[in-house]
Structures are given as structure tokens and as C-alpha cells.
Amino acid sequence: MASTGGAGGKRPARKSTGKSTSTSTGKSMSKSTAQSSAKSTAKSTAKSTAKTQPRSTVKASSRKAGGGALAAGAARASGERAKRRSTPLIAAVPERPALGLVSSIADTEPREPRAAETTATEATLGDTTTANAPSASAPQRKPHRPHPVAKAVPTKKAVAKSGTRTTRPKRRAAAGSSTEGRPVVVDAAARGKLVAVPDESVRIETPTPRSQHVAVAPGIEELLRAGVAAMRVAAEAMGLAPEEVEQRVAETLSFVRRRLTGDFMVDEFGFDEDFTEHAYLPLLRPLYRRWFRVEVRGIENIPTEGGALVVANHSGTIAMDSLMTQVAVHDEHSTHRHLRMLGADLVFQTPVIGQVARRSGSTLAANPDAERLLSQGELVGVWPEGFKGVGKPFSERYKLQRFGRGGFVSAALRTGVPIIPCSIVGAEEIYPIIGNMRTVARLVGAPYAPITPTWPLLGPLGLVPLPSKWIIEFGSPVETADLGPGAADDPMLVFDLTDQVRETIQQTLYSLLMQRRSVFF
Questions:
Q1: What is the per-residue pLDDT for 64?
Q2: Do 35 and 65 touch, CB atoms closer than 8 A?
Q3: Using the 8-state DSSP alphabet, how is residue 99 labeled?
Q4: Per DSSP, what are the bridge partners of residue 308?
Q5: What phi and psi values does residue 238 have, to the nearest 5 degrees?
Q6: Is residue 403 a contact partner of residue 446, using CB atoms and an 8 Å limit?
Q7: Cα 96 vs. chain centroid, distance in angstroms?
Q8: Is the dihedral of CA 336, 266, 353, 384 positive or negative?
Q9: What DSSP string runs through 378-393?
Q10: DSSP 196-227
Q11: Backbone angles phi, psi at 388, to 5 degrees
């Protein structure tokens, strides 16, 4: 360009005029092109600078780029950027009524609140501008829509620290329910703690007591009704009133509780009074009252206190007469005394039977044990005939066997207690013995192996005793106190007293047999 301008000075004026015109036109075109390119360059520079540099830096760079239009464009761009920057990314959540934040413990199980729920709760109940304003250093988050209802559920640790006890209802309250309740509202000032705030707009149904929700399984209710009806029928058959049945059931439950807790006493002989009164005698009473229909006479001859020796005849194949005498003394006597019976060695060697005998007050038929019981003021019963009387055939019924050597008399003489004769009618007929299997008895170690009309022909049914009518009569006592303890060493005196007691019982048996109308009535 410089060389071309220099050469143009030597040409003609017309040509130079054209050259000057073209030159000026080219200059003006190049100037406008340069200005437009400068504007576009300034705008792009301002845009890139506005993203990375502050507002003042952008303005300075725009001024350096030159031109008022460029400066105005850069100012507008930076203003828009500043306006968008001052606008928060998350809009302030409008305040909601307390109804939206009510949290019932019955709705959900306790859990840790999520970050989104905690943020929404702070935005609703706290300072929304402070909670949601982004900091200069924190990265910007994408805007999101808050949950329509945020529930802040406290954790179990928070509930334990707060000391607030809450009741968990079984189901939600129905809409429009009139049941009053106290909802639990989580306040921003006390997050993590349960604060009971009354709110009439929210009601929680009061939990129904557990007793009103007890449901009986199908079929169980019918079984219970049938059981109660069966108990009533059994009570009527036994002649018991419904109130008495309820009393018996209550006594039985109380007895079971005492056995489980060990709240009972046992004396030195193994006698358990609680077991005897609440388990042993109740099992024998149905036989005593309904099956054998025992009639007791002369019960007033038994002293109300102090020791005494009851001597009775023995029969019946199975020693049921001793058991019925024990029930008669306890139930018919005014003071309900317990008869402490003396038994043979075989009784206490038999499993189960020996333990029950000890628990019910029986002890070994030995003079030392008998004397100890009598000296302690106990009522002692003895059956001197032993197995000879129990196992005698039916043809010899009501004929007393030998009373032994009179050991019971010597025990009564040493302790100075009276001897009370006892006669029992009806026991001979419960198992009439028509034969004896001696070989079988020796094999099993029993004193006899009876054959009755029902045993062993009917098998287990042969063990059911026949329902004979019983009469038990206690005779007048034979006093021994005036004879003194030394009389026990006189054999003739002991023999005379033994024979006297035996004859008294035998004559009473004959008298009762004459008075009895029938074996079974």
C-alpha cells in the first residue's frame, strides 16, 4: 500500500482523483468493517469475561474494547448475570399450617429423619431465608420441589432422652371422629424431642383396653360352655351346690399354688396336712358319701383333744375300711381330727402307695412310733388282725382273727391314753373272696392272691368294689390312765385288755348285722 501511494503522485489529476476516491471509499469500508468486527469481538470477550471475572473487571474490559455500544452491551449482560445470581436457586416455601407437620407415633415406626425431610421442616417452621440461602463457597444445587407433607419422626434415643411417654394407638382415627386426643408436633426449636401440643384440628383415637379385644377362638367358647355344664351336672349328681363347686375349684387352685411355691409343712413322720385335706381326703369322699353311704355312730366317744388309740376289725380284700375310717373321723368329728394309722411293712414298700400313705399320716406299725404319736396327743388307729383279717374267705366274714400279742395295748398303757373299740360292717362284701391263688401269691411276694366274682374274670372292671352299705360305730373308751405305765410289763394284764377289746368289737359286729336290713341298702 505504501508503494502504491507513492507512485500515484506522478499520474494525471483525473487518475489521481479516481484513486483518491477509491482510497477514501476503501478506507471508509475498512473502518466500518473494523468497527463491526470490534463490536463482535468485544461482546464475545465480555461474555466470556462475565462468567469468570467480577462485575468491575467486566466493565473495565468492555471500556478497553472501546465504543459506547460495546460498553452498554457489556453492562446489560453483566446486569442480567448479577440479577440471576442474586435470585436464590430454591424459592422460599410458603408457610403451612401446623396440620401438615403433625406426626403420630402410631402411623410409622420410629426412624431417622431423611435430609430432605429435615430441610423441608426447617424451611416450614424455621427461618426460610437463612435455611435455604446458598453460601458463596457451597456448590449450587439444582432446584427441587419440596414434599407436600414432611414428617419429622423422632428416634427412639430422642424419645428416651426427652422422658416423654407416648401411647401408641392401634389404628388411625377415622375422619370426623369425635374421640379426643393430643397429637405430637415437632417444633423447630426442639427438634428430636416430642412436644405434646393440643390441636383441635387433629384427633387421635384413644386405644381401646386390651380386655375388650380378647377374642375366643372358634370352638373354644362351646367347649368352655360344655365344661361348665358338665361341672354343674356332676355337682348336682354329687349333691353339691354351684357355690360349693366354685369353692372347691378355688381351693384346688390355691393348693396347686402352695405345692409349686413349697408353702406347706411336713412333720417328722412325713405327714402332710395340706396334702391330706386338699388332695387325699377329697378323692375318698365320693366313695365315702355316694358309693358306700357310710353311717357313723358313736363319734362323740372320740376325745376332742389329747391322745387316743382306735382299735378296729379288718376286712375287705383291699384295706378300704381303714381309709373310710380316716374320712369318718375327720369329717364327722367336731374338731376334724386326723387319724394317724399304723400300717404293715408291705404298705410302705409298695411304690406310690407307700409315699401316699406317709403323706396322709400313716406310719409303720411299731411300738416306738405308736408311743411317740400317742405321747404327742395324736389320734392313732390300728387294725390288729392285719392281713389275716383282710384276706380271709367270705365264708368267715365278720369273724375276728387273732389280735396278735397285744402290742397296741402295751403302747396305750405306757402313754396312758384310752382305747376306743371300732366296729365296721359292710367292708366284707365289697370284694367277696371265693378262692386264693397261693402259687401266684408266692411268686409276686403277696400274702394272698384273691379270686372274687369279678376278678380276674372281668379284668380291670373287677377292681371296682361292690356298693355295699357301711356302718362304722365307735364304742365306749377303755381307760388305761389309772393302771399306770408299769402295767405294760404285766403280760396277763395286757392279754386281758386285748381280749376285752376284741370281744367288744365282735359283739358290736353281731349287733350291727342284726340291725342291717340289707347288704346294699
A1: 46
A2: no
A3: G
A4: 379
A5: -85, 0
A6: no
A7: 48
A8: negative
A9: -EEEE-TTTHHHHT--
A10: E---TT---PPPPPGGGG--PPTTHHHHHHHH
A11: -65, -35
| Other Cβ atoms within 10 Å of 2 Cβ, number | 6
Residue 327 makes CB contacts below 8 A (sequence gap 6+) with 281, 284, 285, 288, 294
Place of cell 376278678: 455
Is residue 28 pLDDT above 50, yes or no?
A: no
* Mean per-residue pLDDT, 281-291: 94
Nearest to 162 by CA among 189, 121, 119, 191: 191
Q: Which helix (H) or strand (E) holds 45?
A: helix 13-52
First to last CA, the chain: 164
Confidence of residue 493 (pLDDT cuts 50, 70, 90): very high
* 352 conformational bin, left if phi > 0, alpha if psi -120 to 50, beta if neither: left
Give CA–CA dist 390/395, Å, rounded. 13
CA distances for 186 relative to 120, 127, 191, 428, 476, angstroms: 13, 15, 6, 89, 91
**Half-sphere exposure of 470 toward its Cβ, with a 13 Å CA cutoff?**
28
Question: What one-character DSSP code corresponds to residue 277?
Answer: I
